[in-house]
Amino acid sequence: MKTTPIGFWVKTASLFLFRSGRSTVVLSLMVVAAVYTLIFLSSLAVGVNDAMIRNSVSLYSGHITGFSLSPWLKTDNLFVEGVVGVLKRISIPGILTYEGNIETVTLIGVNPSAELKRTAIWKKIIAGKYLQATEQAILLSQPLAERLKVKYGDVLYFSTGFEKNNLQLKLSGIYKTGIDQLDRGIAFCPLAEIADMHKIWSATIFLNEGVEPESVIAEYRRRLADTYHFKSWKELMPDLRQLIDLEYLSMGIVTVLVFGVVSLGIACAFVIFILKNLREYGIMKAMGVTTGEMTFLIVVEVVLMNLAAT
Fold first, then answer.
1. Comparing C-alpha atoms, which of 259, 263, 214, 258 is closest to residue 234?
2. Vertex 91: Cα angle to 90 and 97 (nearest 5)
3. Best exposed site among 94, 121, 207, 243 by fewest CB in 10 Å?
4. Alpha helix (H) ranges present in the chain?
């Protein structure tokens, strides 16, 4: 038995689709809408996760944190490929007092101008203003300010113990982030105020979009001493990583449900398209076309239609 060339069936399928022009257009638009919806949901999931990461790391923590760095190590040494910003910080635990009220805090010295460029703590200020390098000032969270019963302009005293040599700091501003780690037990002051009290510093490192923190950390380990420790936001913020994983899972479930509903609708439309040409298929069957060839013709029609939609 002579086999009909594949080109014949492709041409026949094209003629079927051309003759049923309106049905072909409607089905093609359905395929386009289905694929567009799935792409949109996938892009939405990626966009939401990227936004969560960007908002979290830009608030204060950065993409990578370097701990216990030597005073001989300069911030310029941490600029490798993919790094766009490095902030130097010095942390000192101590006691903050005001008119008999005492709170244990970690005072963090920062470079105000550099922090304004890279972090967003200043956007969370609810009273007063952000720090200035020329001022002997302090920035407190709202819960800490309430416990100390201070307001903008008050003078507080910081010390590393109960000794007399207190560091006098004027309250520059009060902030509220809603994040417990930043709103409790932390205060900020200009780096110059405590630079002589402690030499060991930490680095907050910001990366370009799309750069993986692990690759930068690997480069640091290759270039710098093993005594320096660097951790990415994934290690320091496991709750954010779990939230991102949950977001991917949720969007995956939604995508599967949408895909199932859309697939069922398109399948029903294809069935209607096939039934519409049932008379022609019957004539071809009477002319000797086999079941396999008829099936192949329908498959070619579906493929051509999807190609057109693509």
1. 214
2. 125
3. 243
4. 6-19, 21-56, 112-118, 142-148, 180-183, 191-194, 213-223, 233-236, 238-276, 278-286, 291-309
Residue 211 token pair: 């750069």
Q: Average pLDDT in the 94-116 region?
A: 91
> Over the stretch 238-281, which tens digit does the pLDDT of each residue have?
887 887 788 778 878 887 887 787 777 777 777 777 777 777 77
Residue 165 CA to residue 95 CA, distance in Å, equals 12
Same domain for 72 and 217? yes
Which domain range does residue 11 map to? 6-49+244-309
Measured CA to CA, the distance from residue 72 to residue 75 in angstroms comes to 10
Long-range contacts of 48-57 (CB under 8 A, 24+ apart): 48/247, 48/251, 49/244, 49/247, 49/248, 52/240, 52/243, 52/244, 52/247, 53/233, 53/240, 53/244, 55/120, 56/233, 56/237, 56/240, 57/206, 57/233
- Do 216 and 94 lie in a common domain? yes
Rg over CA atoms, the chain: 32
Residues 175 and 197 occupy one common structural domain:
yes
Residues 45 and 151 in one domain: no
Domains contained in the chain, number: 2
278: exposed, middle or buried (Cβ count in 10 Å: 0-12, 13-18, 19+):
exposed
